[in-house]
Specification:
This protein is of the alpha+beta class. It has three domains: about 1-35; about 55-130, 3-Layer(aba) Sandwich (Rossmann fold), CATH 3.40.50.300; about 145-175, no CATH class. Helix content is about 40%, strand content about 15%. It is built from six helices and four strands, in the order H-E-E-H-E-E-H-H-H-H. The chain has helices at about 1-35, 95-100, 125-130, 145-150, 155-165, 170-175, and strands at about 55-60, 70-75, 110-115, 115. Strands 2-1-3-4 form a four-stranded antiparallel sheet, with helices on one face. A hairpin with a 2-residue loop joins strand 3 (about 110-115) and strand 4 (about 115). It is extended and about 80 Å long. Bound molecules: adenosine-5'-triphosphate (ATP) and magnesium ion.
Length: about 180
């Protein structure tokens, strides 16, 4: 009886452990695939941009080779105006925005900004040019001040407030306890 108990506990641990290992292995697959994705290449030398027009020239794109999401898309945006991209859910609106931000590279065609193929613009320079507000937002479970300061950890309190004003959320934040 006593020896049975001695064996049962480790066997149960093993059984639960192998279940956890299966779960971990399943979750590791996308992580492995992500880590195996080739890094995007961009130059480090800043380039001279002429203006801030975006243009898509015959752009096609798929997140993987099995499914094309954008097919031969061409358009231009004009500075100082608002451009709305309208279409049913899943038609590729956010994908267009992600290509504009340079989060992914087009499979075919050209995405240009300021007269340059965005692949010729260093990441840092591109991030100084644009602001990307994602559809699915995420706030860290810390103060709003901390969340706003993520973009520039050295920002003073006044600069954080100025950013909040520019984003039209200062009044709302001021009313919070
Ligand atoms: N990271 C991703 N990996 C693989 N497929 C994706 C990814 N993101 C989006 N997709 C697929 O690409 C297609 C276009 O998605 P997208 O998010 O651009 O659509 P949307 O027009 O913004 O939709 P919604 O109106 O629902 O926001 C969809 O079929 C979607 O499932
Ligand atoms: Mg979307």
């Amino acid at each position: 009886m006593c020896s049975l108990v001695v064996f049962t506990a480790p066997l149960m641990k093993l059984a639960f452990g192998s279940e956890q290992l299966t779960t971990i292995a399943a979750n590791l697959k996308p992580v492995k695939e992500f880590l195996a994705t080739p890094e995007q290449e961009r130059p480090t030398e800043r380039v001279k941009l002429s203006g801030s027009i975006y243009s898509f020239k015959n752009v096609s794109f798929g997140y993987d080779a099995t499914k094309e999401v954008l097919h031969d898309v061409s358009f231009q945006t004009q500075p100082g105006t608002m451009t709305a991209i309208v279409g049913p859910s899943g038609s590729g609106k956010s994908t267009i925005a992600k290509l504009m931000a340079g989060f992914w590279d087009a499979t075919a065609g050209l995405v240009c900004y300021g007269g340059k193929d965005i692949k010729e613009i260093p990441f840092d320079q591109m991030m100084e040019e644009i602001s990307y507000v994602a559809q699915d937002n995420f706030l860290f479970d810390k103060s709003l001040r901390h969340n706003i300061r993520i973009g520039n950890p050295k920002a003073s309190d006044l600069e954080v407030q100025a950013a909040a004003r520019a984003a039209n959320c200062h009044d709302f934040i001021s009313q919070l306890p």
